[in-house]
Amino acid sequence: MSDNDINSAILRRPVNIGLLGLGTVGGGTAEVLQRNSEEISRRAGRAIKIVAASVRDLNKKRSPVLKNVQLTLDSEEIVDNPDIDIVLELIGGTEDACKLVLRAIENGKHVVTANKALIALHGNEIFSAAQRKGVTVAFESAVAGGIPIIKAIREGLAGNKIQWLAGIINGTGNFILTEMRDKGRDFADVLSEAQALGYAEADPTFDVEGIDAAHKLTILASIAFGVPLQFEKVYTEGISTIEKVDVEYAGELGYRIKHLGIARRNENGLELRVHPTLIPHRRLIANVDGVMNAVLIRADAVGPTLYYGPGAGAEPTASAVVADLVDVVRALTSDPENRVPHLAFQPDAIQDIPVLAIDEVETAFYLRMQVQDQAGVLADITSIFADQGISIEAIVQKEEQDETGCVPLVMLSHKVVESSMAVAIEKIESLATVSGKIVKIRLETLG
Fold first, then answer.
1. The domain boundary residue, chosen from 349, 368, 399
2. Is 216 among the residues known to form the active site?
3. Long-range interactions of 375-384: CB distance < 8 A, separation 24+
């Protein structure tokens, strides 16, 4: 048999997939692969077939589409199986997943993963190993579920210099803030509902404290700016301290509060931050509600572009997983040196741009404080701001008094370096006419 005959036979053979984990996303992937098998084969040039999967329970009832899939309790059987071409990692976590992925790569297998924590924390090591072995690691489904945001930045915007991106990249937090705004509910009340609906875990820390979004922002920033993955440098602040009164006041001032991941490059370095943010209500991204995700990108040639869709769920995530499988299948016979780089930029062109500390970041602020309702208080406060070079855009004093006779004072500042605002807040909080701590929420116009 000639070399051409051998290559033709290989190309006619289905590409065999081994799954690590067969939960919600794994089941959704199997369903999509079967339902759209003809269309997928036409796009990929070969059939894609799940042949084996590692599971925790061999006796659990499975979908009929999995009847011909060999199940095992041993994940190492999957990554060591010589008949498997692509390993699909869906077990979650980081340590075990990393070991299995690296072993699969060492065995010369391509990898598709939906694990954002794995990529954010271990991606540099994983991609380096994949580069050495000439295999691909695809991770579209790791960020924003069914939105093809990785491909959009890595390929669709390849001719642009990206200036900044801002994303609602955690559906749980967005659901909570939407309910607080639309129905005037407290954070704890909405969180309980989110857990009951399955949007939030029993331990919601990763979602509501911004860790999940920080994992995703790490990945987006790396492919947008050509920098190493550096999760440990992302400033992270959650939404658990947001009160419904601040949601209401923001609305009255023409803003909405969203939990944003922001990456911006300026002359001093790179901003990487996740925190609650006031956005003008007229911005499209400010109107992304419920569990939906959206990423707004500003680039020099195309200008602003917005990517919107479901950030989680079995079939939306499976959509991204299958897209990665098709991409890998298309590239199986290509020269590894000519494939799309994992992090958009060629490996030797990745730059370690300094990441700014949050104190060095310049942004505007929403401030709410409780002050004595008497003459001279506002003058004292504005004098402190003036000493720090802080300009105030708007001031609103509310009439409702608390039990100490204090009233809410709400202020919006113009852009200022965070360290200067911190000094001003400390001095204002020390005034005898100011009660308690000042509530501070960053504000971005995204213009």
1. 349
2. yes
3. 376/433, 377/409, 377/431, 377/433, 377/434, 378/409, 380/431, 380/433, 381/409, 381/428, 381/431, 381/434, 384/424, 384/427, 384/428
User: Is residue 12 included in any domain, yes or no?
Assistant: yes
Q: How many CB atoms lie within 10 A of CB 174?
A: 26
Bridge partners for 273 per DSSP? 235, 262
| Pairing verdict, β 110-113 and 137-138 | parallel
Length of the chain as a residue count: 447
**Residues 18 and 141 occupy one common structural domain:** yes
Is the pLDDT assigned to residue 5 strictly greater than 70? Answer: no
Q: Are 301 and 15 in contact (CB under 8 A)?
A: no
* Whether residue 423 sits in one domain with residue 365: yes
Amino acid 398: pLDDT? 85
Answer whether residue 280 shows pLDDT above 80. yes
Q: Is 151 contained in some domain?
A: no
- CB atoms under 10 Å from CB of 426, counted, come to 11
3-state secondary structure of 131: helix
Which of 109, 216, 233, 258 is catalytic? The answer is: 216
Q: What are phi and psi of 158, to 5 degrees?
A: -60, -25
Q: How many domains does the chain have?
A: 3
Q: What is the DSSP letter of 41?
A: H
Q: Report d(CA 103, CA 116) in Å as an integer.
A: 19
Measured CA to CA in angstroms, residue 273 lies from 195, 200, 214, 306, 396 at distances of: 26, 22, 8, 19, 28
Q: Is residue 410 part of a domain?
A: yes
Report the pLDDT averaged over residues 337-359. Answer: 86
What are the tens digits of pLDDT across the range 206-222? 999 999 999 999 999 99
User: Is residue 308 within a helix (H) or strand (E), and if so which, with residue range?
Assistant: strand 303-310
